[in-house]
Amino acid sequence: MRSLILNTALRFIAPIMFLFSFFLLVRGHNNPGGGFIAGLVAAAAITLYTLSSGVSYGRRLLQIDARLLTGSGLLLALISGIPAITSGQSFMTGLWLEKTIIVIGKLGTPILFDAGVFMVVLGITSNIIFELMEHN
Amino acid sequence: MISTALNISLGMISLSMILIILRVLRGPSLADRVTALDILMTTGIGFIAIYSIYSNNDIFIDVAVILALIAFVGTIAFSYFINRENR
Question: Are A32 and B70 an interchain contact pair (Cβ–Cβ within 8 Å)?
Fold first, then answer.
């Protein structure tokens, strides 16, 4: 579907969507947000690009294969539970670094878990969209 | 003063939502229904924004922003498939 209106609007909307998805991902511990909804917003941006420019463009935009993204996200979420075991606490206890970083705030294992969830949701959703559009 | 304005606008938005749902149910063509669903999302955004003032809770504004970013994806997908069906 070649649409001039959609392509022009996308140039402004998609960066905002990616930025907002990052904002949701980082903010997720104390306020509404988190990996799931951030992944959905990012996947919506990818979907819009796929609808306007075709599946091959969407795959190129995602850079890596959607299934690989899903798998590595699951692995990242699993890895985020391991530091707690090595320090003698139960699995997936949230551990935080003392130092704070500008924009991101405190770093810790929960943000690693959220990043994993983000990758899983983004990978699965864009995979569904690609498969549905290629199938027809 | 402001609570009166909020009550009036909430009532008007609810009324327009009912009218839009009637259009979704009746709409002669698919395009009418899709447009009506898009407008329903937009009134939903307005409803959330007013409710956020009503309850003094700014977290709801973020919900409205997410809904505004997501809402038109569905409409565009619908138009994509309508376009392809007609070909």
Answer: no
Best residue of A41, A126, A129, A135 to probe chain B, by most B CBs closer than 10 Å:
A41
**DSSP annotation string for B28-58:** SSHHHHHHHHHHHHHHHHHHHHHHHHHTT-T
CATH number of the domain encompassing residue B48: 1.10.287
Is A41 close to B70, i.e. CB distance below 8 A?
A: yes
Task: List residues bridging with A96 in a β-sheet.
Answer: A108
The structure's pTM equals 0.84
Q: Read off the pLDDT of residues A17-66 as tens digits, 9 standing for 90 and up.
A: 999 999 888 887 777 778 899 999 999 999 999 988 888 888 898 888 98
Query: What's residue A133's pLDDT?
Result: 85
Number of inter-chain CB pairs under 8 A, A vs B: 34
* Burial of A121 (C-beta count, 10 Å sphere; 0-12/13-18/19+): buried
Q: B84–A32: do the CB atoms touch at under 8 Å? A: no
Which among A109, A94, A125, A99 is positioned nearest to A21, based on CA atoms?
A: A125
Number of domains in chain B: 1
The ipTM assigned to this model is 0.77
What is the least distance, in Å, from the CA of B47 to any CA of chain A? 19
